[in-house]
């Protein structure tokens, strides 16, 4: 690359005096980096030049381009910001300073940092991201430079080690590509995704690339054919348009292939791999053009989206439709104005084009409303890791757009519920929420909102506060981290004694569920980074720690069986389950019917006389009272396999119509099969239900029991052995 390449791109929208300014910045940077080389072997000046060229494609202002050329000068050439300010002005110096600070943060630890003893890699990454996003609120151009910087680094990633390449690619996919998407910079977003995809999953990358290449000539001929038909039709109707084919990028195709594979569809069924873009002069022409397309070819039901009337939060506007063209071939068509197209390609960056041209972009504040919201949330978050989780779940996830009863549009993370919506509107509205309506009909509070719905929250006048069940991840009441933080804040204000007692009850109940009798609470508190057991129990009480998290932590700590004594030498027939007998090689193993252990349980083997080793839970009644201790051997679950194990559950509930139906429905929703169920009516108007289900693992069983416990009328639930003995 030469400066002439940058000059050619910039001259299309910058006046001559700004080009002279850019050349001065380039010469200054080239002199400062003289003799310096990149790991790829090219002169160092190639990097800032490529960054500036990428930003020129986005048509950013001269100060941003100059800062891009100079952004590595303070760090690598030891030239002060004061010198840069004196030479190029305060605006450029401020941008260089911002990029330099972000570069020092490195947005996520390097491989060496991650390996450092005692280092908390995720915390550092979270804190760095937090600082970067907060810096965005001061001047978005800093982040434009950082995105372009990452884009060129990804294009030259081959010079680094395989481990480093994967680490940077993962960070790019998780943070930079979604950030480009939320800023509306489509051109950078899709290229960053494809580059990251190449290093994160090379096998599938090659597979998709080969599929696309094999159909390239065929698709090109098809697009030329339908374009000619459409062009003729537009001319007949007196409509001036510009037609072009729109390539689908590889990572997007891969995502569609994964989704379609689950539906039994093939690559050829992906209708928006073939796409046409239609550019027109004004909004009335957009609707005129889409009408012509629909009159020519049959629209695919449910595939029309009007992003002109309902723009995306990043400012994107367009009409999308899919039609069955030429009889049987699905085709996506996008229609937009030239100005909409520029914003679609360059997003928020397009704001500077209008700013430098002396025009006002009246929608700019709306486009970065999500960023303002982000800064507000940042003030409420307790720490960096909570902030990172909020960004990933609430900002970078797919969006759903719903309306308030007054017609205001609100964007939420896909899968958001009425409770998420209520807390998005106002904390007090969330705290008083007792019901919801979508498009005028009552919906449950765990209902997943759909695009275009009008959502109304039903509230109580009493100051009763949110339900603790809302914090149970297994019950699906909330999706967004923002709602979770607000609910937690409410419970933290409640009496400490109440939280402590409730936490103790929840922990005891969970230990009983998973069959653990005793646990070192102080050690468990330290594992969750709480100072003492009381603080930990209070956190469980107000919902900061879920009992499911506790059970998973305990199970991960107990991967190795505890009661291990002798080893046994015997023959090696193939095992019937994914259990290995330690110290003996392969042995025939069978799951004990008396206690029905499942993967995750602490287990021990009992050597039988003619059926190999029978695998029991360590707390099994028969094992605890076994007199021939020499028959006990150490066993392990070994390599996980897709096997199913019977697990028995006993439930005590108030008798009511529909109880068995609700239980069966809940089990079916978890994709679990019921082997048997018996129901016994008691004299006190309660009923006892004994159920045996096919379970893959202890974590699946724990999740099922947590959901069953939330069913109306359930008093208690516990796991039992086949002999009727209860766990714990």
Automatic annotation (TrEMBL):
Gene3D superfamilies per the UniProt record, alphabetical: 3.10.20.30, 3.30.70.260, Beta Polymerase, domain 2, Hypothetical protein af1432
Superkingdom of source: Bacteria
Molecular function, one GO term: kinase activity
Pfam families hit by this protein: ACT_4, HD_4, RelA_SpoT, TGS
Annotated ranges, domain ACT: 648-722
Annotated EC: 2.7.6.5
Residue ranges of domain HD in the record: 44-154
Role summary: In eubacteria ppGpp (guanosine 3'-diphosphate 5'-diphosphate) is a mediator of the stringent response that coordinates a variety of cellular activities in response to changes in nutritional abundance.
Protein name per Swiss-Prot or TrEMBL: GTP pyrophosphokinase
Organism: Dehalococcoides mccartyi (strain ATCC BAA-2266 / KCTC 15142 / 195)
């Amino acid at each position: 690359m030469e400066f002439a390449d940058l000059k050619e791109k910039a001259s299309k929208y910058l006046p001559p005096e700004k080009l002279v300014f850019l050349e001065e910045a380039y010469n200054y940077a080239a002199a400062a980096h003289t003799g310096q080389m990149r790991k790829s072997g090219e002169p160092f000046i190639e990097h800032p030049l490529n960054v500036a060229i990428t930003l020129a494609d986005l048509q950013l202002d001269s100060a941003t381009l100059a800062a891009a050329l100079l952004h590595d000068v303070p760090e690598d050439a030891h030239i002060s910001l004061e010198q840069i300010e004196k030479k190029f002005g305060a605006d450029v110096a401020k941008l260089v300073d911002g990029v330099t600070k972000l570069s020092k943060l490195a947005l996520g630890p390097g491989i060496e940092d991650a390996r450092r003893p005692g280092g908390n890699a995720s915390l550092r990454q979270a804190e760095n991201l937090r600082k970067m996003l907060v810096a965005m609120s001061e001047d978005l151009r800093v982040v434009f430079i950082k995105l372009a910087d990452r884009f060129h680094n990804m294009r030259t990633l081959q010079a680094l080690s395989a481990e480093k390449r994967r680490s940077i690619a993962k960070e790019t996919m998780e943070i930079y590509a979604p950030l480009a998407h939320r800023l509306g910079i489509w051109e950078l977003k899709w290229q960053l995704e494809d580059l990251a995809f190449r290093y994160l999953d090379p096998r599938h990358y090659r597979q998709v690339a080969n599929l696309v290449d094999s159909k390239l000539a065929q698709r090109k001929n098809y697009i030329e054919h339908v374009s000619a038909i459409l062009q003729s039709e537009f001319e007949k109707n007196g409509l001036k348009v510009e037609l072009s084919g729109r390539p689908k990028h590889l990572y997007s195709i891969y995502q569609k292939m994964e989704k379609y594979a689950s539906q039994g569809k093939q690559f050829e069924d992906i209708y928006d791999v073939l796409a046409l873009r239609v550019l027109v002069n004004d909004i009335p022409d957009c609707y005129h053009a889409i009408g012509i397309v629909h009159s020519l070819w049959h629209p695919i039901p449910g595939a029309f989206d009007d992003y002109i009337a309902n723009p995306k939060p990043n400012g994107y506007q367009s009409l999308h439709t899919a039609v069955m063209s030429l009889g049987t071939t699905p085709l996506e068509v996008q229609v937009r104005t030239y100005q909409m197209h520029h914003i679609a390609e360059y997003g928020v960056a397009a704001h500077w084009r209008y700013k430098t041209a002396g025009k006002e972009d009246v929608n700019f504040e709306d486009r970065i409303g999500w960023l303002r919201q982000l800064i507000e949330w940042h003030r409420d978050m307790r720490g960096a890791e909570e902030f990172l989780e909020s960004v990933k779940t609430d900002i970078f996830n797919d969006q759903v757009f719903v309306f308030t009863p007054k017609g205001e549009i609100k964007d939420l993370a896909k899968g958001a519920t009425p409770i998420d919506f209520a807390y998005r509107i106002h904390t007090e509205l969330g705290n008083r929420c007792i019901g919801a309506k979508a498009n005028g009909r009552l919906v449950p509070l765990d209902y997943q909102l759909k695009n275009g719905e009008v959502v109304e929250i039903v509230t109580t006048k009493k100051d009763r506060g949110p339900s603790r069940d809302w914090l149970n991840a297994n019950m699906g009441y909330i999706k967004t981290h923002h709602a979770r933080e607000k609910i937690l804040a409410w419970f933290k204000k409640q009496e400490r004694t109440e939280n402590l007692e409730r936490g103790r009850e929840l922990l005891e109940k969970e230990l009983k569920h998973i069959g653990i009798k005793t646990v070192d609470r102080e050690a468990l508190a330290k594992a969750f980074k709480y100072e003492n057991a009381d603080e930990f129990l209070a956190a469980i009480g107000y919902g900061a720690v879920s009992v499911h998290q506790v059970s998973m932590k305990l199970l991960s700590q107990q991967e190795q069986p505890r009661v291990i004594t002798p080893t046994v030498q015997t023959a090696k027939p193939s095992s019937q389950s994914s259990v290995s007998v330690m110290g003996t090689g392969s042995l025939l193993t069978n799951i004990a019917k008396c206690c029905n252990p499942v993967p995750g349980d602490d287990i021990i083997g009992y050597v039988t006389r003619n059926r190999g080793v029978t695998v029991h839970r360590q707390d099994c009644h028969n094992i605890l009272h076994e007199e021939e201790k020499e028959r006990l051997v150490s066993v392990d679950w070994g390599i996980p396999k897709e096997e199913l194990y019977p697990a028995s559950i006993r439930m005590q509930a108030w008798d009511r119509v529909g109880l068995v139906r609700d239980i069966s429905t809940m089990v079916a929703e978890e994709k679990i099969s019921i082997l048997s169920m018996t129901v016994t009516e008691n004299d006190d108007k309660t009923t006892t239900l004994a159920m045996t289900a096919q379970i893959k693992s202890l974590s699946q069983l724990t999740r099922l029991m947590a959901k069953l416990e939330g069913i109306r009328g359930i008093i208690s639930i516990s796991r039992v052995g086949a002999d009727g003995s209860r766990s714990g």
